[in-house]
Design goal:
Elements lengths: L1 H27 L5 H28 L16 H33 L4 E6 L4 E4 L1 H7 L17 H11 L4 E7 L2 E12 L2 E11 L1 H36 L8 H30 L7 E4 H11 L1 H6 L3 E6 L3 E4 L1 H17 L6 E9 L2 E8 L6 H4 L11 H6 L6 H11 L3 E7 L2 E9 L4
Parallel strand pairs: 7-9
Antiparallel strand pairs: 1-2, 1-5, 3-4, 4-5, 6-8, 9-10, 10-12, 11-12
Helix pairs in contact: 1-2, 6-7, 7-13, 8-10, 10-13
Bound molecules: adenosine-5'-diphosphate.
């Protein structure tokens, strides 16, 4: 306001002095004042044009760019402001769509159990979900950090480098939490790499199964090869006539033993793979566990008498509904072990009992026992507790594996308790299978 008054005073005083000069020139003929008049006029014109241009520009400057049509303005600007309003609307709509698709992306990726990380071509992380950090067991990256900060492991770096170079890559990362599969793919737009997308998956279980499968295959090959090599060797000697007549029968016995070992092994593998593949028909029938135990002991009577073992079956005639072949194999394997790993003149007790929710089969022996270090592993395939001692005792290392799978098939559990006095295997089957 002060400035305006000051400016008006200057203009008025400039105007009045120019006027007086003009009067002097016209009436008194003092032409030397002409230059001063000219300068005064220029000054007045400059000030007036500054004021006018400010007046003209002010409404344009005051246009609210977010709401261009909200205030009254020059009619001439109407088409431009209308256009601006339309464009604002379009930008707002696109912005809302972008926000909602970002929200959707985040909802979807957050509900994934896999990790996902998106990085630009400079490796800066643009987006990621919490799954990625959970699986890698690290704190979320800060804004602007590189994807390489996710892991220092060499396979991970190589994977990212490959993807940055335009090739999809995969690797397995071993973390404290388990094994993770990393899949990195380049994000190309018309042959230009704009960044990469990385998936992180938990493959701990798969890797464990894969290791088990590899070990199983190599164990089976080894176990099949050993008796076959012996049989081949003896057959070769017999064919070449280098076996003395009196040794023929003993070599014949060796061949029979090895062939028996092969048959047992193959039968065990077949049983296990049937249980594994769930190939057994669901033919549940009523089984009297007491009677079945008696049958099994009758089948094993030769082995029992060879070691002078006393067997007692106690308990009740409990009926369960289940697969007879599998339950037979479970009890048979436990009894067979109770004989094999028993001492001469030892005892075996088979007890059939029940509580309201479970049927319990306990097979106890007075044998060599199982030390604590082996207890957790004896149910693994091909695991034999005391290699040197068990080598003298025939076995495949598959019996307890079959027991465990057979019991699981019926929804039950099996556990072992052992001391220097002997071993007990306790099988519990749920009562609703009755
Ligand atoms: P195997 O064919 O060797 O008997 P199993 O799977 O049946 O295979 O048993 C695995 C290992 O557990 C055996 O090699 C043996 O060392 C141990 N074991 C099983 N049952 C008994 C038992 N009743 N007493 C002592 N050790 C046992």
């Amino acid at each position: 306001m002060k400035n305006k008054i000051f400016l008006s005073i200057i203009i008025i005083s400039a105007f009045s002095s120019v006027s007086s000069m003009i009067i002097t020139v016209i009436f008194k003929g003092e032409t030397e004042n002409l230059i001063s008049i000219f300068l005064g006029l220029i000054f007045i014109v400059a000030v007036v044009s500054a004021i006018l241009s400010e007046r003209i520009v002010k409404p344009v400057r005051n246009i609210d760019l977010d709401h261009p049509k909200s205030k009254k303005n020059y009619e001439e600007l109407s088409p431009v402001l209308e256009r601006l309003k339309l464009q604002n609307g379009r930008v707002n709509r696109q912005m809302n769509e972008l926000i909602s698709s970002r929200k959707q992306f985040s909802i979807i990726t957050e509900s994934m159990k896999e990790g996902i990380v998106i990085a630009d071509k400079k490796t800066t992380v643009l987006a990621s979900n919490s799954g990625a950090y959970r699986l890698l067991g690290i704190e979320p990256l800060k804004k602007g950090q590189s994807i390489y900060a996710l892991s220092q492991a060499e396979p991970f770096r190589r994977c990212i480098q490959d993807a940055m170079g335009g090739r999809s890559a995969e690797c397995i990362l071993k973390t404290d939490l388990g094994e993770r599969k990393i899949i990195a793919s380049p994000a190309n737009v018309s042959a230009t790499i704009n960044g990469i997308v990385v998936f992180i998956m938990d493959v701990t279980e798969q890797q464990k199964l894969e290791t088990m499968r590899r070990e199983f295959t190599s164990n089976v090959s080894h176990e099949l090869k050993t008796p076959l090599t012996t049989i081949y060797g003896i057959a070769d000697m017999l064919a070449n006539g280098i076996v003395k007549q009196e040794d023929v029968s003993s070599f014949g016995q060796d061949i029979r033993n090895e062939a028996e070992r092969l048959i047992t092994l193959i039968n065990d593998i077949v049983s296990l793979s049937k249980l594994d593949e769930n190939l057994l028909p669901k033919q549940d029938e009523s089984i009297d566990l007491y009677n079945l135990s008696e049958e099994i002991i009758t089948r094993l009577k030769q082995n029992i008498s060879e070691k002078n073992i006393t067997v007692s079956i106690i308990g009740e005639h409990i009926l369960i509904m289940g697969n007879r072949t599998i339950i037979d194999e479970v009890i048979y394997n436990l009894c067979d072990n109770a004989i094999k790993y028993n001492n001469d003149g030892g005892r075996i007790e088979i007890k059939i009992s029940h509580i309201p929710t479970k049927v319990i089969i306990t097979v106890s022996d007075t044998g060599i026992g199982i030390s604590d270090e082996h207890k957790d592993r004896i149910f693994e395939r091909f695991y034999r507790a005391d290699k040197s001692r068990s080598q003298k005792i025939k076995g495949t290392g598959l019996g307890l594996s079959i027991v465990k799978h057979g019991v699981n098939y019926h929804g039950g559990t099996v556990r072992v308790s052992s001391s220097e006095e002997g071993t007990s295997f306790i099988v519990e089957l749920p009562v609703d299978k009755k």
